[in-house]
């Protein structure tokens, strides 16, 4: 069933004693706004968790394959598209990027039909073998913490070594030192948008949308690791517009949800905050769906 409504949504999640999104260019420190001290989690990080959840639940089978995943060879997927649409002869020769002609559109449509993340988030598929570009109907912002975060550094030791040579160098004491960073507690908010116009172009439908909501609600439950600590979706508030163009500006809807800390003490739990949702302030033609929280 095709999408005929615009959606804007607010995702609220928290982290306790973990690193929600390390910055590899800063020694894997938790990402942070240098001026305000607020914690950040990138849209790419959140999309990765959605992709992992969908791949886990749907078993990587069409139409729910995942295009962007670890160790994926993207041009191999592009090659599949041309083979499946019966245009394998267009892959011959060295200049694959310029080949395809009208078949590029067919290849792009095949990619949208088979890969959930292509029809949801879009993709640039013109690398090497050209399958065109797709602008996705689902977009996410960076998540930003409600209050400034504190990045704690912890020294850790490893008793074992990887090779015999290392063991010989460390005779008598096999311990090697390391570091890990955690945020004691942080409550984060991200905003998202779903365009029905772009959804019609990629084939993103009502079933895909329900799967997206399920992923945003449960993605942290299947992404556990010692490095990430405890991460939990605390709120998923979806504003559904009657009109495809929308019945109110997104920023006005987002302002209806206010999160405040209950005291001046450092927050260490979700119960240290109060989430206020102004249902009475909803504009005409907009419905609030409280999927979590």
TrEMBL record:
Superkingdom to which the source organism belongs: Bacteria
Stored InterPro entries: Cas7_Csh2/Csh2 (IPR006482), CRISPR-assoc_prot_Cas7/Csd2 (IPR013418)
GO BP terms, alphabetized: maintenance of CRISPR repeat elements
Protein name (Swiss-Prot/TrEMBL): CRISPR-associated protein, Csd2 family
